[in-house]
Amino acid sequence: MRIALCGGTGDIGKGLALRWAKDTDHDLLVGSRNPEKAREAVEEYEDELDRHGIEASISGFANGMAADRADIALLCVPAYHLVDTIESIADRLEETILVSPAVGMQREEGGFQYNRPSAGSVTALAASAAPEDVPVIGAFHSLAAGKLANLDTEIEADTLVVGDDEEAKGTVSDLAAGIDGLRALDAGSIANAAPVESLTPLLINLAQYNRDLSDVGVRFE
Amino acid sequence: MRIALCGGTGDIGKGLALRWAKDTDHDLLVGSRNPEKAREAVEEYEDELDRHGIEASISGFANGMAADRADIALLCVPAYHLVDTIESIADRLEETILVSPAVGMQREEGGFQYNRPSAGSVTALAASAAPEDVPVIGAFHSLAAGKLANLDTEIEADTLVVGDDEEAKGTVSDLAAGIDGLRALDAGSIANAAPVESLTPLLINLAQYNRDLSDVGVRFE
User: Fold this and answer.
1) Which residue of B has its CA nearest to A201?
2) Could A210 and B160 be called an inter-chain contact, meaning their C-beta atoms sit closer than 8 Å?
3) For residue range B15-41, what is the model confidence (pLDDT) as tens digits?
4) Can you tell me the distance from the alpha carbon of B165 to that of B154, in angstroms, rounded to the nearest whole number?
5) CA B33 to CA B9: how far, in whole Å?
6) CA angle B5, A220, B74 (to 5 degrees)
């Protein structure tokens, strides 16, 4: 499949690009508002893969070019850039599934708190901004980006997948499960997205309060 | 230690009573609004322990008697009975730590949703109802009650502990960690309780949507 990582120069984009390059044969396109920045990131990712004996060909583009004719486009951007990123690529989406891993949070007394958008969740916000025929799936929220990006580390984590389009949800779940050690679990419809997204500030707080935990993920069992 | 399980005739009370009877030598007191119901539950728990070759002496009382001079009193009651249960035992609490495992939730489109009380969380609600010198700790929310109560099953789960009194939080964390396979993680102050409590409806939804998951707990790693 053709996978676009819009905003893929950040932590989570890097981790996912490296893992998919290592574990799958998907075509990977890293996007950024600035195509030069995307190409620099791709060079860095290819060097890192090369150090692990993995030959991969990833491409760097402006976000719109990366999303063009992609089967799946991930919105690896902060929640406050979600809507403008979707608007900037909207006319390139043709039978493309949009995936939102974004979480809104704020630091409050005692730790990070989930910042629930008035749309109900960040995934719902993405769905409201996306063209009507483009399915939006929430996934990859609670992954420890540092662990993903460190190819010497084995992943053993779950990601929760929410969406209203069952076929698209299945496609994204398969994409997730293509990463060794990552399990995709169905968390239901977008109406269920808020508690899924609010896991991320919880994980950050746990890493802060517990000496033995860092770059922490979650398993349901 | 002397541990009171107020409302301990329900699922979570049963599971915790059986596990502490099996794995620790704490004095266990099961409370109910109706002392007769508490004594019946205790008989059932002792029979179950006996079937596993464990000799345990648990006592059944009215909630107030169970909480009397307890080191720790757990409020194993639905969120909507939390305040009246605290009021019914308030004059018995002497150097007692109150523990709230309760979660408010409601069934909505797509699944269960966390029902956040206006106090900010169920734990904060308990803290506001408790006598001023009684520390309140939130813990044991996300445990699979069925797995706890089935002594043939090994537990491998985390419980998240929140509280504003560090010493009391440590005592409750030690109590939790006394159960084989249960790990207590510090999730910070009561200000962080809402995302901890909202894990429970998420776990219920995951069990509903994923065939391989039932009686599901959570691990952070």
Assistant:
1) B195
2) no
3) 999 999 999 999 999 999 999 999 999
4) 31
5) 10
6) 10
Q: Give the span between the Cα atoms of B113 and A162, in whole angstroms.
A: 14
- C-alpha B183/C-alpha B204 separation (Å) is 21
pLDDT band at A109 (very low <50, low <70, confident <90, very high): confident
Please give the structure tokens belonging to residue A147: 């662990």
Confidence of residue B201 (pLDDT cuts 50, 70, 90): very high
| Paired sense of beta strands A2-6 and A72-75, if any | parallel
- Phi and psi angles of residue B159, each rounded to the nearest 5 degrees, phi first: -125, 140
Interatomic CA distance for residues A206 and A105, integer angstroms: 15
User: Whats the size of chain A, residue-wise?
Assistant: 221
Return the domain boundaries, chain B. 2-209
Q: How far apart are CA B55 and CA A144, in angstroms?
A: 45
Q: How far apart are CA A32 and CA A14, in angstroms?
A: 12
pLDDT in tens, A151-207: 999 999 999 999 999 999 999 999 999 999 999 999 999 999 999 999 999 999 999
CATH number of B2-209: 3.40.50.850, 3.40.50.720, 3.40.50.880, 3.30.70.60? 3.40.50.720
pLDDT in tens, B46-71: 999 999 999 998 999 999 999 998 99
CA of A190: which chain B residue's CA is closest?
Answer: B110
Q: Do B110 and A156 touch (CB under 8 A)?
A: no
Q: Number of A to B CB contacts under 8 A, please give it.
A: 116
DSSP H helices in B68-144: 82-89, 122-129
Question: What is the distance in angstroms between the Cα of A70 and the nearest Cα belonging to chain B?
Answer: 28
Name the phi and psi angles at A82, rounded to 5. -65, -50
Asked if the Cβ–Cβ distance from B202 to A191 is below 8 Å, we say: no
Instruction: Sort out which chain B residues have CB atoms less than 8 A from A111's CB and list them.
Output: 188-189, 191-192
A213–B113 CB contact, under 8 Å: no
Q: Where are the alpha helices (DSSP H) in chain B?
A: 11-23, 35-51, 63-67, 82-89, 122-129, 145-149, 166-177, 193-197, 199-209
Q: Is the Cβ pair A186, B201 closer than 8 Å?
A: no
Token duo for residue A210: 């517990």
Helix or strand (DSSP H, E) at B4: strand B2-6
